[in-house]
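fold-stage: in
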Amino acid sequence: MAVALAALLFSTSALAAPYLDSLRELSQRADVSALVIRLDDMSVIDEINADQRLTPASVSKLYAASAALEQFGPAHRFTSRLTSHGSVSGNTLNGDLVFVGGGDPALDNPRLWSLINRLRERGINRVNGNLIVDDGLFGSVPCLTKDRCDAQRVASHAYSSPLSSAGVNFATIQANVYPGERSGDAARVALHPIGLSGYNIDNEVTTGLPHTRPSLRVWRTYDGGRSTLHLRGALPMGTGPYEVHRAVTGPANDTARVLMAMLEDMGISVSGQPRVQTNAGGGDTLAYVESRTLAEQLIPLMAYSNNYMADTLTLDLAADSGYNRPLTLPLASQSLEALADRALRENFPSQATAGTGPIIESGSGLAVSNKLSARDLVALLSYMYRQPSLFPAFYGSIPVPLSAPSRTLKQGNFDWLTRINAKTGTLSEPVTVRALAGYFRLQSGGYGAFAFVINGTRSRPSLSYRQTVTAYQTDMEAILADY
């Protein structure tokens, strides 16, 4: 504690000449919270309203990743199982086959194929019973954000998928669209896995001439207990396939349909029907499959800013801690708030005052009710920097602009592209949100940390890319040039 206080005194007296000129100018017409420090001595390089708490968008995922690493450890794996209370006679299972969801944030078709193949390796090719999906680890998770609630009826994206401990493919439906052989032919649509039931296809995509610009619009609706995938547009012949993903209505029910199609394709017949039942597990484990390690999962979570993965991890923390079911994201996010408060008190004790602290109600940042300051974020980055067993996995998960899949940070000088690891955050409603937080390598070889959170205001809700991203990039490049 004495070291932290001494570092704090040094940081307040060692404030250098202002670097954040572009953000300082922006703060005259937008809400801006910014802080840049050197981590070894906690000296402040520059700051703007560092304690103002704003909507942070997807930089909230830094807390979900940190809390998961702290609670589970980088080598943790999630387990999905097939169980039954029935008996096996020859090649027949007499009883229900139960898939027990283990809260794997990245469970996908290839891992389900592996799971079913292990069941077949036991010699089972017939099930005299139902296929049941058990989502009891979380219970039925309610939708509490507008995006997720709206997506239950109409989904035009993948980012708003609902949550379940038994979800697969990030709770999305995958369709591949193939142009026809000749101009004017109808395109062909294939769902994955092949044989997946429960979807109507409303396809009006045509085939265009070679070298024409492709256009494809896809959305899913849910009405009368059935989902319909609507496709419109034109695709040039000789191209594709075009892969699309859209949020499903009910992730556990969708997993039941996926499993049913896979079992049939693998030659395992099920006499009954697929359905969802909470806490139907138990009995004997017939097959299981483990996820990739948590450290490995965090890399795509951060690189693609996967909302489903971040919020599923947040629910995993609550389930592991024994919270009552059904879980909700605000309840589960209390562990993230506790981490945020702890990090702030350990790294900036004089700024960690009693009263309202950091607010986190979603590990993904989809909830606009999340409120974090630049100091909150830098405190977390400092906290993880001082965890030798966790920092390598955490640091390694945060994208470097040069190799990141997102184009947001691709434009910049060589230092910008190679010397920072940064998580972005973006929302467009009800006001523009642009945020960036992460680490930068000092020319001396040490580390710095930075956080920029920008929100539009009620009077000026919309902010341009140039006003936001260009502003913090210009300022950060000036810091990199001197440090």
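fold-stage: in (second)
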Amino acid sequence: MLKKMSLNQKNGWLIFHLLFTAMWIGSAFTQLVLILIVFFTTNPEFLYSAHSFMHIFDLALIIPGALGVVVTGIVLSVRTNWGLTKYYWIISKEIIAFVLILSGGVLNIWVQDAIQITALERLDSLNNANYIHDRLMLLVFGACQLTLLLAVIFISVKKPWGKRLSKRLPQPSNQTSS
């Protein structure tokens, strides 16, 4: 069994957990802003640049932020009284993080496709059905991801669900019959 953290250690890990969370959410918000702007421009250079920046944000901030959140979250859970499965609010955060990380891989496919199309077709990108589809999916799924990230913050602050009931086996009695 791992030794529990001191209050200073817990606070240090919590600070890093919050910094990684800010990286992840801030980058997700920035990507959503970029994809919204893409809907209101016909400039082929901007289309290519916006999708390229989305990819850079993914590699430089979203992936490290998500990994940092997961690692610091696991350390905090295992080395404090929270545990990985003691509370429903922690379990919900773990499930949401798993869904976000998996769906991030799908989003990356659409970003890569949009980069390719806007690089090759420049002016005709807006007439390409695949590009129109990718752009719409990036908007829809990007908004969903940001909503889930904000939900995780709400869950972290409010802790809306309590502790799981543990199924304990009856303890044998130490009494001897006389």
